[in-house]
Predict the structure.
Amino acid sequence: MTVLSVEGLQTHFFTRAGVVKAVDGVDFAIERGKVMGLVGESGSGKSVTGFSIIGLVDPPGRVVGGSIRFQGEELIGASDRRMRELRGSKVAMIFQDPMMTLNPVLRIDTQMIEAILAHRDVPKREAWAQARDGLAQVGIPSPEERLRAYPHQLSGGMRQRVAIAIAFLNNPDLIVADEPTTALDVTIQAQIIHVAQMLCRARGAALIWITHDLAVVAGLADRISVMYAGRVVEAGPTDDVIDHPRHPYTVGLLGSVPSANRRGEKLTQIPGMTPNMLDLPPGCAFRERCPRASDACLTVPQITAAEAGHPIRCHHPHGAAVPA
Amino acid sequence: MTVFIIRRLLQAIVVVFLMSLIVFFGVNVIGDPVDMLINPEADQAEIERTIRALGLDKPIHEQYLFFLKGVASGDFGKSFIFGEPALKLILHHMPATIELALVSLVMAIVLGIPLGLYAGLFPDQRISRAIMAGSILGFSLPTFWVGLMMIMLFAVYLGWLPSTGRGDMAEFLGIRSSLWTRDGLSHLFMPALNLALTNISLVIRLTRAGVREAMHQDYIKFARAKGLTTRRVVGVHLMKNILIPIVTVLGLEFGNLLAFSVVTETIFAWPGMGKLLIDSLLQLDRPVVVAYLMIIVLFFVIINLVVDILYSVLDPRVRLRDQGT
């Protein structure tokens, strides 16, 4: 069952210097209990995509086009009231920096209980018990004691566990995780990924895992969508995308990751830098860094799917003839 | 925490002692009260008698030791002018000033914080710009001028509010105050607003700055992502984070309101301590000046202590530890 389908999403920021098309044509769908990795460099629009889904794009940003359907319900243009009802109960979000996401002056129990009471009419005592069980489920020892703590008394990994526990409190159907492990030690990263994956499987929630780290999603996601300059350039089943990347950008990304299979070989790097989003070159945004670019790339490539379930946005994908 | 408070109180005693030393000797330098007190036609014998009666014939250090001995038993000396104990005189004028300072502090809070919140949450609204422009006027216009203008407008032209005095008083919960009568409140309103104007402006600007900064913090976004109502996000998550600078400034300002509301008290003929201080200074009434300043120092020390304790209530990361006064 499809939990969320995003089509042609466009979120633009109207700044004084001009319009930044942070998200400009993003499509994907995610099913119940599945994990989708949304991969891209900084500034590719992946976080903005996440915030667009939960309706928390701050001005001067605005969703200007496309469709976000959550369990059949159109979220673009939904009332503030409806979005507030969904946020935290049906759709939850986990943020990047656990040191910043919990309010420093409120106790953990306050921050957890309010999340329950915002959506369900239960006695406070009951909410407290659910908060305690929530902490226990993400592997926090002596949860009753931790409930009385303030955020600064917990480590980064611990705080991210608390944030995950908060996200799962109301049994959401969809969780958007915005680089939740980027700010953590590698050993803690693995634990956090494990906890999130386990809870999603147990509850049947769909998970969108936003990251710049291909290695992370490779082991976690069922499907991957690769974003570049506000557009999804390649999407498909994880193994398919990793083993047979078709878009030159994905190929470049994978080539720059060290791998045991290519020990001793030189790592390739993608030439140039991510383009300035205020001043995107016309046509394919990756054109100026792409080894396969041609004059055809001066027009924006349409989404094509040579193989079913593996759409790409490229005029000269790998596996096709290189232009002369 | 208890240790912290006790230590701070001990430090307070040292500060008050040093203050008494400075003020006592300082006041002795600025002129001879005998000239002010005595009839210019009095003869030498009468002058001698007065000097002896006031204890001014002894060397200054002896005078000071005598004064300290008195303070230890709660006696700050007698006013040269009124012949009454200085402490009694000050305590007699204190309720009027405390009343005025409290009301203007409350005004600063109930007007300043909501206006600042509005200006911070909706910075582009025309109303917000008007609030900010008004706040600049609020702390740059001199108090005496605003006070006079208010009297002109509300007392002279419109005739809505009385311009001088404390008005009727009544007793409630054992406290005698103008707060409990309609007439008293109408007398209190203008001087309190006049006194509060600077602080309202300060609180507006502090609140707005805090809101603008905190609004973009992740914890606010996370609170919204939990589906909390705007009311709760702003009222709890935001407010608790921006209160610290506001409490700091209001604490200091409250001390100022108590000690130095001289200008407002003079303009509105408010029978408070500020008026007493100015009169005593002009008449070189040493015991009153010294006692007044010692009491004010005590006020400041206590207010600062309360502010420090409030910090630890507002922000759990603050630990009350002794770091010198």
